[in-house]
Amino acid sequence: MLLRLARAVGLFSLARRRVRDSLLILAYHGLAQADEERWRSKLFMNRATFQRRLELIRRWGVPIVRLGDGLDHLKRNAGEPYAIAITFDDGYYNFASLVTPCLTATRTEAMVYVCSYYSLHPAWPVFDLAIDYMFWSRPSGRVPGDVIGETEPLTASTPAERAASVDRVYTFAERNKLGGCDKDTLARTIAAHLGFAYDDMVQQRILCLMSGAELEEVARQGVDVALHTHRHAIRESPVGLRQEVSDNRSALNSLGVLPTEDFCYPSGEWAVDMWPVLEEVGIRSATTCEPGVARPDTPRYALPRFLDSEIIDEIEFEAWVSGFMPWLYELTGCSRKRAPENGAP
């Protein structure tokens, strides 16, 4: 109600003039191919919702720019107009099948940060997500505990039961250091007990990442492909971070893709002591999950983003696009967040 009142009295329009020389970076993960937005509404958005988001940006007349171009404009600190850059995390197949056609039809620039391990194995749904999705899809299902070396069955009749069962599966996989092939076998076994059509999920590429050919194709259509670690994790040392970036870059190169030197922290976990490593390995920018806008004085390894999702109300999205929420963040000092003081997660 407050946001609608602010818009009605003209504060949204006024804010646009107050946020020059700032860049709003929008963050998405993927569009739903089936019912994923009902399962993980923070990760997956309905295609129609995304199309409405693009239309709303056009109605406000805010330019959508490549992330690199937007950062170059900020570097010049020349009073550039308020602009938006669009980013997608992880590199799901639905980016190629659903997102890119929307971008192409509207001539919209975007960047996709790719976790390359599953791009090397594009027929494997991401294990952690697939397990949770299957239990969510079959809440009355029951899986014998012996599939993970236990006696108690795996059930999901309530959210708490589902969370506990999924955690037990993850723990089993980690404790036994299962590789990708063994995880896929375990997922198939669980799917069989749940009566879940795993092969259909694989055929539709739900929860799968883009293949090398698909990454090459989206790059040919003008999308910037960027770095997001190889395994969607940062191991606890500078050596681990350096290795993840190196493996990420090498894997994408092996798939025929030359990524930009932009990076997205997996799960938004970051710390200032990561910055020297990022500089050493040639990273020019790194995005976080902290809300706010990038300004000329924003550290390039701590770029804030607004995480849009299916659960974000349209008036809240409009408040960000118009510049009102960024202006409010500046007035209240909320955008000046500090990095975690501990080391790399």
Structure, described:
With 345 residues, the chain is of the alpha/beta class. The chain has two domains: 2-121 and 208-332, TIM Barrel; 127-204. Helices cover 47% and strands 11% of the residues. The chain is built from 16 helices and eleven strands. It has helices at 2-8, 11-18, 36-39, 47-60, 67-76, 93-106, 117-120, 127-137, 159-175, 180-194, 198-204, 212-220, 238-254, 275-280, 314-322, 324-332; strands at 23-28, 30-31, 44-45, 83-90, 111-114, 142-143, 154-155, 224-227, 262-264, 285-287, 306-307. It has a five-stranded parallel beta sheet. Helix 8 packs antiparallel against helix 9 (159-175). The radius of gyration is 21 Å and the shape is globular.
Structural class: alpha/beta
Number of strand segments:
11
The coarse silhouette is globular
Strand order of the largest sheet: 8-5-4-1-11
Give helix and strand order, one letter per element, not per position.
HHEEHEHHEHEHHEEHHHHEHEHEEHH
Radius of gyration: 21 Å
CATH superfamily of the largest domain: Glycoside hydrolase/deacetylase
Q: What is the third-level CATH name, the topology of the largest domain?
A: TIM Barrel
Compute the number of helices.
Answer: 16
How much is the average pLDDT? 93
Ranges with pLDDT <50 over ≥5 residues? 336-345
Strand content: 5-15%
Tally the structural domains. Answer: 2
The residue fraction in helices comes out at 40-55%
The CATH first-level class of the largest domain comes to Alpha Beta
Separation, N- and C-terminal Cα atoms: 39 Å
Major sheet description: 5 strands, parallel
